[in-house]
Amino acid sequence: MSAGREFEYRSQDFNSVRQTLYTLTGIRLADSKDSMVYSRLSRRLRLLKLRRFEDYLDYLEQDQSEAEHFINALTTNLTSFFREPHHFEVLAQYLRHYPGTKRIWCVAASTGEEPYSIAMTVAQTFGRFDVPIEIIASDIDSGVLNAAQAGIYNLDRIGNLSDTLKKQFFHKGTGANAGKVRVVPELRKMVEFQRINLLDAQWPIQGQMDIIFCRNVMIYFDRSTQLRVLQKLVLLLKDTGIYVAGHSENFSGAKDVVKSMGNTVYYPSRAGRAPL
User: Fold this and answer.
1) Which residues take part in binding S-adenosyl-L-methionine (predicted)?
2) Is position 5 annotated as part of the catalytic site?
3) How open is the CA angle 157-68-192, to the nearest 5 degrees?
């Protein structure tokens, strides 16, 4: 496995990485991800001046602070503004139906595009920024959360947005910042970012949610972990709440927990009927 590579990397190292990641996060890496693991963790070995993955795994076991770097390196963050746009149409419909909505949780904030899309939808629906709705945006990766809080993006990241959205919600950079945009301060104030690991026994989340966006997260968990996390998330939803999943996630096998409203939007089974 190490032939022609800078660092010694054996099949047992890859398996150890997979097991450690699963233990820390619940994420299962496929057999095909061995090259990705080598590529992403090599940066850590280089920085720490280590020669073998075995040495890195020993270091990881001894230094608890390395776990954050390990997780950041191996988690995938694919996102865009208004990805799966039908979900934001459902969000706007919900907000109009329940104008007293108080709390929205975006479980996988990544670099911020999803929670800012939620905030833009809230601001547009109510026609102002100062809406008394708490938007919590979390992620397991502290690196992407720092980027999300900064709210700075390359200009091409907002290429698919309308001119109205660009003008209302972004400032274009000049001089040294040419080619970049920044989310306007009023929008950034609407979102509270925090690091949360869904496998932690306790989450720093108090009170119930009206809406939970948990998109393209469960696909990285095995079935038992999916169900355990889903049950815990749905307990936080109001009876009138909705759970928004990713396009490749399906909970038809968990009808005692959630029921489908279509378009990968669900409501708590205990509620008895869909809120919309």
Assistant:
1) 77, 79, 83, 114, 139, 197-198, 215-216
2) no
3) 50
